[in-house]
Batch of 2 targets.
Target 1
Amino acid sequence: QQEALQQYKDRDAVTVDGTRVSLRANIGLLSDVAIAQQHGALGVGLYRTELPYMSRASFPDRQTQYEIYRRVVEGFPGQPVTVRTLDIGGDKMLPYFDSPKELNPFLGWRSVRVSLDHREMFQTQIEAVLMAATHGNVRLMFPMVTTIDEIAACKEIVANARQSLSDQGWDIPHVPVGVMIEVPGAVALADHFAKEVDFFALGTNDLIQYLLAADRANPAVSRYYDSLHPAVLSSIAQMVAAAKRCGRELCICGEMASDPACFAILVGLGLREFSVSSPSIFGLKALLSRLDIDQLTMMSQQALTQASGNHVRQLVDAMIGDET
Ligand code: PEP
Ligand code: MG
């Protein structure tokens, strides 16, 4: 089947009526670069930088990070590569990093909160990302932001990193800065955040667990973790509207975007930028090529009014069939 889908590699992701979307890749390790290329990904919508940190015995220094990021950026000439700063804590611990034992790690000291409490480490990473930006089209993204103060603090560190590099003779190009929207409280502040950032990325893996109070990593509650729960769709719709109102790009990089049924709903909700797991790209293009945007829009509007994720699933299955 994957062979039959190979024809989609160099094709655009477009509906019957000509509505185009961008399919970029979620990557973590250097080996993911080749896989993304083989599937015709239009750059990287989410580079999880903690993966190279996790596979080491100690913190990589600036030069080491720069060399890794540079190789990723050079893998996608002319295409955007969105580099997310360290997102540790919760499900991703570093063996050499002293983390407190917490009762609720996902509600605790994780992600950008850790970075902001370790400014030297944070600035080092940002410097390495800015250095890599001299080799391509880099964008910088902060995870799990919940307050405007965090954005200000992150931007101050970016400014310090730029200054320090410039003092060392580096000529760093403009690098767009964005935040991930993955906490329900951040959705409500999108208009304020938009004044401070160039783009948004929807992190639905976390957004779903926080909206539905269902740990993303706990099999005992996996049936409560429902990507098509109408409350999830409603939050996404709210973000689409906010991004449009504020003229900011909105990409979705949670795993749900790689699932055909969810993808159909997301396109219908108005999303046009996707970052997905590379092996899903051909199938999503094939699916899109037989759908019509007006039908998708109508279906997604109906989905928003449903009583449960199962009702939404029935709606979307009726439209896309069982082929996927
Ligand atoms: C997300 O939360 O949706 C996301 C893309 O980030 P991660 O899965 O790395 O937490
Ligand atoms: Mg996340």
Note: Residues 148-167 form the longest helix (20 residues).
Target 2
Amino acid sequence: EPRKKSSYEIITLTTWLLKQEQVGTIDGEMTIVLSSISTACKQIASLVQRAPISNLTGVQGAVNVQGEDQKKLDVVSNEVFSNCLKSSGRTGVIASEEEDVPVAVEESYSGNYIVVFDPLDGSSNIDAAVSTGSIFGIYSPNDECLADIGDDQNLDQVEQRCIVSVCQPGSNLLAAGYCMYSSSVIFVLTIGTGVYVFTLDPMYGEFVLTQEKVQIPKSGKIYAFNEGNYALWDDKLKSYMDSLKEPGSSGKPYSARYIGSLVGDFHRTLLYGGIYGYPRDKKSKNGKLRLLYECAPMSYIVEQAGGKGSDGHQRILDITPTEIHQRVPLYIGSVDEVEKVEKFLA
Ligand code: AHM
Ligand code: MG
């Protein structure tokens, strides 16, 4: 007879990870990497929540390699993330939205896990205390890539080796997740066996398992696009957008929801169904979002939940990046909704 579950029994992220290690889904190194990421997220959650008190709102005064204003919290979160990964001793290379090039953690690259991350996504929302998040993906070192080292004189060898090892298609991802800093702090994770949701219990200071094997609805009548860019879109996309506003036979058009924080907009889409899109436009030829640390991890998660991630024509996870900050159009969410936009764009 199965053991009766005590009503005080909770599963924390830590115990869940240890269990996964025990059954052999992940190895000990991955357990350590994931647990240091969760520590970084807890620390960032606390910094985000206290930002106006501790004078962490506003801009840093610097511009990152992609020409974006860095917020103070962008810089701090990047430091927190990098430090947690470095001190785990299990990460070989990290690539971050806020760093110009990937960074080798060990002097001589030792072949441990590669972590790509956006430490604080949606930070334009931060000064108004609107949801933000951290996104991450984990890869194994790629030997094939290591063989292709060119002799680019501008980059030293270690740097060059790091770039080629992080430039892998999302289909190689071993794990991906995000942490959303919102009314609850939510940690969403996949290690290739479905999507698990943990909620930070502020009393315990632990992430507690609150949803397992999440499945995204097959369709959903919510869309999240920055429609301010409508005039810059091509005609096919415009007619897709117009079609969402037709009441149709149900008499009800789609609902628009747009936070401007990928993590928040994605999390709602995952739970309620619908679509999130960041298309290419006349000004931004490849859209805005980055393939490596935004689109690929989110696409891996959505596929694990039974959804779809596309650039409008092909599966995001099949695209191999050639640069670490490469951008790509993104359409992600319920299968029916992503296929619908693909049809319009074909
Ligand atoms: P960031 O990484 O600089 O924060 O930019 C990414 C964010 C996404 O979270 C969000 O979906 C998108 O940019 C919003 O862009 P826009 O303001 O153009 O709608
Ligand atoms: Mg980002």
Note: Residues 51 and 57 are 6 Å apart (CA to CA).
